[in-house]
Amino acid sequence: MMRKVVSRQSSVVSILFLFLLTTYNLQLTTAFAQPISSTELINSAKQYDGKTVAYEGEVIGDIMVRGEYAWLNVNDGQNAIGIWMDKDLTKDILYTGSHKFKGDWIEVTGVFHRACLEHGGDLDIHAQAIRKVRQGRQIIERLNISKRNLAFVLLGVLCLVWILKQLKLK
Amino acid sequence: MYNAGGIFHLFSIYTMILKPRMEDIKIIGYYLGKIILGLGLTMLIPIIIGLAFGEINPVLDFLIGIEIALIFGLILIKICFTEKDLNWMQGMIVVSLSWLAATVLGAIPLCLSGHWKSYLDACFDAMSGFATTGLVLVQDLDHLSYTHNLWRHLIMFIGGQGIVIVALSFFMRGASGAFKMYVGEARDEKILPNVIHTARFIWLVSGVYLILGTFALGTVGVLNGMKPINAFFHGACVFMAAFDTGGFAPQSQNILYYHSLAFEIITIIIMLLGAINFKMHYHLWMGNRREIFKNIETKTLFITIVITFCITAFGLTQIGSYPKAIVLFRKGFYQLISGHTGTGFMTIYARQFINEWNQLALVGVICAMAFGGAVCSTTGAIKMLRIGIIFKALLEDIKRIIMPEKAVVIQKFHHIKEIFLEDKQVRLALLITLAYLVLYGLGAIIGMLFGYPFLNSLFESTSAAANVGLSCGITDVNMPATLKFTYIFQMWAGRLEFMSVFTLIGFFVAIIKGKR
To answer: Is the distance from CB of B514 to CB of B478 less than 8 angstroms?
Structure first.
């Protein structure tokens, strides 16, 4: 009986210990489950340094594959931050933002570095997981009629001025 | 340097006494019209690129821009037609007005793109581009068209060589007034006997380096995983911004976008090439490599880089911002070289200067920005020849005190040839230095009037007036309009080294107060 009580007590202590350890670890690594803005990350870089953060934004520019890894830059509308990730994680990304494309909107979970020692002091995030929130798309550019009309009117004026100048010279 | 001093004196007398005649205004208008025509025609380059990339609306923006520029240019040429040549005063005024006209006209396609919040913001970026500063107010840069992005960098290339140099090279064959405008653009050293040949040599050097630089940066871009088309487009843009010590980049993260040591090293080399006197380039091209080790400018540049980097590195080490040597190099040294050469490329975010650098490190970068590169280069600021001359004069005075009274103290310096140090050189070097210091201080005071801290204000003001482009976060779309105007004025006056600006002010004073 006594043995049973001791065993139950030790189980409770063990569970409690494991719970505390997990919570402590969580506090150390994933204290920030909600996406954090780039401005917040840059302004409070020391606070978030080495911690696991969630960050979301639009993938812009090129996906730059470097061996087994890749760099991509993610802009949340305020700033763009470099994301270092396993090359395989980029497979789901179809669109990257440019003049003609709206890039995929992704959520990145990873370790934030104020001055990453592995990457020459870059402020970056080493991604552990990414999730596509919204797919990007091609931006269909339609001819701006008012700009076209203005260009035609100015062309007429330019021709007129040119003719007047030639007449004067003659 | 001699000429500019004489000119300033001559014009001061002239503008203080005589009211300008209609003929003066006509001559100024005629040459201004020619320069505007030349500037308008440069918009053909982004139009060609826009057509190649199938960007319809951006091409329309530039069609409108080119048409307005050509209309203004032709009207000025027609109304002010003259066959007379420029005198010194008119040449200076043409230069200062050309830069304002370039800003106003160059901003039109930028504003039409919708990426700038107001026309003032577009003018800010246009002046920042032409003056090779690099401060930006553009919005959503990562979605800007190739056409507009090319224009942003092309105006740096044009401004770096000099707007008037463009006109001299391609549109003004044989004008004897050319040298007056060449001097007005803060280039008082002729490389070749003929100023038009000098202008063309500057373009030759820039063109050759453009091809080599684009190839090097483009190749690194491809190896770094960029698409070839983007890699070479970025390569060309970044080269133009680096060689002309501008500081714009095609993406919002500036050079941080590339995450590449090789890219950073190549840009450092290009920035240093841009900070060297074109006369030095000429001698290097002619095989006179010893000049680089003997010249007062390169010696001074080396010494000031070492001193300012020591200050910056000591400051950064004090607070342990970058614990590894390679990190200190890629963050500390890169920002310092970028500031010293007047480029303004950044591999950190603007707020990191304030949040993660201490005051000592910031002072190191501010000093580097204030010094600048060589005269007759694409950099702004006080410049190495003047710093070197002032230092030599100080040495001469110390020698005079130490040596016996009857001893004759002679100080020499090497700048292409051996030159004896004269009082008038020292006086002019000190005058220009003083003017820059006043300009840096003035911008800092105005920044402080809007509630920004002293060091932040001084940092941003020095960056604007020395045509650098590093920012600690003050330059923002929401900053007060007065501050935007202040920085535009600083970029303009700093790039032209005051003489043309003073002459223009004197001209307006003479219109009001001068005697007939």
So the answer is: no
